[in-house]
Write a structure and sequence with these properties.
The radius of gyration is 22 Å and the shape is globular. The longest helix is centred in the N-terminal third of the chain and has 24 residues, at about 90-115. Helix 2 (about 70-80) crosses helix 4 (about 90-115), helix 4 (about 90-115) packs across helix 5 (about 135-145) and helix 8 packs parallel to helix 9. The protein is α/β, with parallel strands linked by helices and about 350 residues long. The protein has eleven helices and eleven strands. It has two domains: about 1-205, Glycogen Phosphorylase B (Rossmann fold); about 230-345, Glycogen Phosphorylase B (Rossmann fold). The chain has a six-stranded parallel β-sheet with strand order 3-2-1-4-5-6. A five-stranded parallel β-sheet has the order 9-8-7-10-11, with helices on both faces.
C-alpha cells in the first residue's frame, strides 16, 4: 500500500492564468504526498497548460465528463432538495442555493468520472483538498463519501469571496451549513477568516485552523535608498482594488513635487487596463506611471527584486491575505496597504 494521495480541486490552475498562489504551495504539497492529482473544476475544458508541476503531480480535467444535459438534470433535481422554507423567505437565496447545488453536483459527476480509473485502496490515506470554500468544497465532500475509504478526508481552504457573504455574488453564500458540518477541516488564510467561520457560520472551532498561503522562497535582498520613489502594486484591476485611488494619490504626490514613479502589474482584461490608462492620462501623470498589464508569476517575482523599487502598495477595500504583499515582504520591500481582511496580520505599523 502506498502513502498519501491528494486530489487537489482548483478553479483553473494549472491552466491559463489565475490562482498563481498555488504555484508557491504545490512544491510543499508534492513533498508530503505519494501522488497528487490536480483537477480544475470551475473551467471544465481549459485551454492551455501554463504552469510547471512537480514530477509526482498529475493533471486531469473534467472535459468530456461534464455535459449540459447532465447539468440541467441535476440542477432541476437539486431544487427539490433546497428547503422550501427558504423559497418563502427569500426567492433570490433559494435560486442561488438551487443553482449552486445543481452546478456543484454536475462538477462532482465530472470529477468522479475523471477519477474512475484510480484505485483509491492502493493508498493509506486520501485527501480531497478543495482550494475554495465553494463548489469545489462540495465536490470534495461528495468524493470522500463516494470512495468508501477508511482514511479519506475532505478539507478546504477559505479566502475572501468564498468566505465573506458581502463579497459573494448576490451577497449570499449557499450551502454554508452543509459545508462547515461536512468538511473534516477548513483552513482559512487569516485569523479574521477563522473568526468569520466560527462566529457567523457556526463552524466547529476544532475543525478550523489558519493555514497561510505559501509564497516562493527567495534569497534575502539588501536594498539601498535610491534618490527617487518607485512604488509598485500587483493586482487585478477590479473595482475592489481601487486603483483609481492609487492614481489619485500619485497625482497628488507629483503635484507636490515628489519625484515619483508608479508601476502596476496585472489587469482584468484589455478594457479595464484601457480604463485605468484613461484615468492616468486624465490626471496628467502618464510620464510617472507604467501599467505593465499581466505578467507571469515568475516575471512578477523577478521584477519585485529590482533594486530601484522603494515600496509596495495595496489600496484594496477588501482582501483575504494578499500573496502579493507576502511576496513583496519576501523581497525586502516596505508595504503601504489598507487595513482590510487579513492584510493587517502581515504588516507591522511603522
Amino acid at each position: 500500500m502506498s502513502g498519501r494521495l491528494i486530489v487537489l480541486l482548483t478553479s483553473i490552475y494549472p491552466f491559463d492564468s489565475g490562482e498563481e498562489f498555488i504555484e508557491g504551495e504545490i512544491e510543499y504539497l508534492a513533498a508530503g504526498a505519494e501522488k497528487i492529482i490536480v483537477i480544475p473544476v470551475h473551467t471544465p475544458c481549459p485551454n492551455e497548460l501554463t504552469r510547471h508541476v512537480p514530477e509526482n503531480v498529475e493533471v486531469r480535467t473534467i472535459c468530456g465528463h461534464y455535459g449540459l444535459a447532465k447539468k440541467a438534470t441535476t440542477a432541476a433535481s437539486s431544487i427539490l432538495r433546497s428547503p422550501l422554507s427558504l423559497l418563502a423567505r427569500s426567492p433570490k437565496k433559494y435560486l442561488i442555493e438551487s443553482r449552486f447545488l445543481g452546478s456543484a453536483r454536475a462538477r462532482f459527476e465530472g470529477v468522479r468520472n475523471a477519477l474512475k480509473d484510480v484505485n483509491f485502496d492502493e493508498y493509506e490515506s486520501v485527501v480531497f483538498y478543495s482550494y475554495w470554500l465553494f463548489k469545489t468544497a462540495a465536490v470534495a465532500v461528495w468524493m470522500r463519501d463516494s470512495i468508501n475509504h477508511p482514511h479519506a478526508r475532505a478539507v478546504s481552504r477559505a479566502h475572501r469571496a468564498d468566505l465573506y457573504a458581502e463579497h459573494a455574488w448576490g451577497g449570499y453564500l449557499p450551502a454554508r451549513r452543509f459545508l462547515v458540518e461536512s468538511l473534516d477541516a477548513i483552513y482559512p488564510i487569516s485569523e479574521d477568516g477563522r473568526r468569520t467561520l466560527i462566529e457567523e457560520d457556526s463552524a466547529d472551532p476544532e475543525k478550523v485552523e489558519v493555514h497561510r498561503l505559501a509564497s516562493k522562497y527567495v534569497e534575502k535582498l539588501e536594498r539601498t535608498r535610491p534618490d527617487h520613489t518607485h512604488i509598485v502594486s500587483v493586482s487585478s484591476i477590479l473595482p475592489v482594488k481601487r486603483l483609481d485611488l492609487a492614481a489619485d494619490a500619485v497625482a497628488e504626490a507629483v503635484a507636490r513635487g515628489v519625484d515619483l514613479k508608479w508601476t502596476h502589474i496585472g489587469d482584468s482584461g484589455a478594457e479595464s487596463l484601457q480604463a485605468l490608462k484613461g484615468r492616468v492620462e486624465e490626471l496628467g501623470i502618464s510620464d510617472h506611471v507604467d501599467l505593465k498589464g499581466r505578467l507571469t508569476n515568475d516575471q512578477t517575482m523577478q521584477f519585485l527584486r529590482s533594486p530601484d523599487i522603494t515600496a509596495f502598495m495595496n489600496t484594496s477595500s477588501s482582501e483575504g491575505v494578499p500573496v502579493s504583499i507576502m511576496e513583496a515582504i519576501g523581497n525586502s520591500l516596505p508595504v503601504l496597504c489598507t487595513n482590510v481582511g487579513g492584510s493587517g496580520e502581515l504588516i507591522r505599523d511603522g
